[in-house]
Write a structure and sequence with these properties.
87 residues, alpha+beta, 2 helices
Length: 87
Amino acid sequence: PKQDLAAIKVPVLVFHHSKDACIHCRPDEVPAAFKGFRNAPVKKLVFVDGGENPAGDVCAGQHWHGFIGMEKEAVDTISGWIANPKP
């Protein structure tokens, strides 16, 4: 939220897990931060709520932060959007 998001002028996809407990990217802060991408030609916000068996550090890959248990879905969704960015 403290970065100059208005300076970003390329397509933006924000893909976030609704259960992410990392203190650096809390789900409740995402919508307000997303509004900061006002100069992005295309932008999309996606919240997901899948996966399974989170373990360890909440800011690491084996927890919701890393889309544990739904990695393929996350990669497929993100790569599909990169290939064809739509709001």
